[in-house]
Amino acid sequence: MIRVGQGFDVHQFADDRPLILGGIEIPHSRGLSGHSDADVLLHAITDAVLGALGKGDIGTHFPDTDPEYEGADSAKLLREVWLMAEREGFSLGNLDATVIAQKPKMVPYIQQIRERVAGLLHGELSNINIKATTTEHLGFAGREEGIAAMAVVCLVSPGK
């Protein structure tokens, strides 16, 4: 059985926070604003996994109105969702994700992010693709107001 899910998230920049993307801290003058650590990439991946499972979205499972998730580590939230997938008999087929940001430049961090995400999803590194693009100075990302991310995940299961 094969299940596919997609996810998308966006957060605006904030001056008083570290920038966390893909479960790692990236040197930058600003972080992202949000109830949790605002890891836009892991949020998109989490939504993609939940979509493949047919289990709603990140806000349903970890609402930003719940003080328990204030400042939450998005890697822990993704691990929790990934355990749901594994309990249902799924493993990772592949993941393809894109970070949309004018700055910071992501190329120096892509490999480290791939390794971190592979560990979180108990997947092979060769099945994790992370890429980045700018918007050529157009829109909110191009004006450096925030960062967006999108992800598509394929889950596989031997039966059902």
TrEMBL record:
Alphabetical keyword list: Isoprene biosynthesis, Lyase, Metal-binding
Co-factor note (free text): Binds 1 divalent metal cation per subunit.
Site positions per UniProt: Transition state stabilizer: 35, 134
Cofactor(s) needed: a divalent metal cation
Limits of the 2-C-methyl-D-erythritol 2,4-cyclodiphosphate synthase domain: 2-155
Similarity-based family: Belongs to the IspF family.
Complex formation: Homotrimer.
PANTHER family: 2-C-METHYL-D-ERYTHRITOL 2,4-CYCLODIPHOSPHATE SYNTHASE, CHLOROPLASTIC
Record's protein name: 2-C-methyl-D-erythritol 2,4-cyclodiphosphate synthase
Gene: ispF
